[in-house]
Design goal:
The chain is of the alpha/beta class. The protein has helices at 27-30, 52-70, 91-97, 113-127, 141-148, 202-213; strands at 2-5, 9-12, 17-25, 40-41, 80-84, 104-106, 132-139, 168-175, 185-187. It is built from six helices and nine strands.
């Protein structure tokens, strides 16, 4: 049963459990301080593919497959997947997951896509609309640069405020179980326009949100 508190908070009585989770990242991310927590590192930006976008799709496929395996769930047991990425028409997700044959609900929420995935999947599992739901998301530095700024092949000089989009994909599996990681509640945020117009300075747009969440 789902209880609504206030205007935007949902509380889940059964607290859907995260029974499996996985992450696949690029070498830059793997070499960082969190490296040992990732499940797989891709050897290069192309991951054996012809394009960066195809590499991103392959990362997301791998992340979901590993998460399902770690959670002891077969792909056929997953009732639906909530997935999204930063690319037009969410092609990283749709092309990455199409061969799995899982009923697909595409999501787009930029940096909060995984949070939105978890909220929607928790609602499905808590309500009984799904016994098992999957969440997945991804981004790729090179595909994001082509999408929002300049193709890497262009050789443009990066500005001092330019952000570095992560090369990585993550996935998790939600079911009703006694696993220790649970989704107890979720709050939906509001759209706030801070008048940030520099596409190279996304940190200026996102930093205030963190200050609001963690004053």
């Amino acid at each position: 049963m789902i209880q609504k508190i206030g205007r935007a908070t949902l509380v889940f009585e059964n607290k859907p459990s995260v029974t499996g989770y996985a992450s696949v990242v690029g070498k830059k991310e793997f070499d960082g301080p969190l490296g040992q927590g990732f499940d797989r590192c891709i050897p290069d930006s192309y991951f054996g593919c012809d394009t960066y976008e195809a590499a991103e799709a392959k990362m997301q496929f791998n992340a979901l497959s590993i998460a399902a395996s770690k959670g002891g769930v077969s792909i056929d047991d997953i009732d639906c997947v909530f997935a999204g990425d930063l690319l037009n028409q969410c092609i990283g997700s749709s092309f990455g997951l199409k061969n799995l044959g899982i009923p697909y609900l595409g999501q787009y929420a930029a940096c909060s896509t995984m949070a939105q995935n978890l909220l929607a999947a928790a609602v499905f599992v808590e309500s009984g609309a799904a016994r098992t739901a999957a969440c997945a998301t991804s981004s790729h530095f090179c595909s994001a640069e082509r999408q929002y700024r300049f193709p890497m092949e262009y050789g443009s000089v990066r500005t001092p405020t330019a952000q570095w989009t992560v090369t990585g994909a993550g996935s998790c599996i939600l079911t009703r179980s006694d696993a220790p990681i649970r989704v107890a509640a979720a709050t939906v945020g509001k759209i706030t326009d801070l008048q940030i117009t520099d596409p190279n300075n996304m940190g200026a747009a996102m930093a205030p949100a963190m200050c609001i969440m963690e004053p």
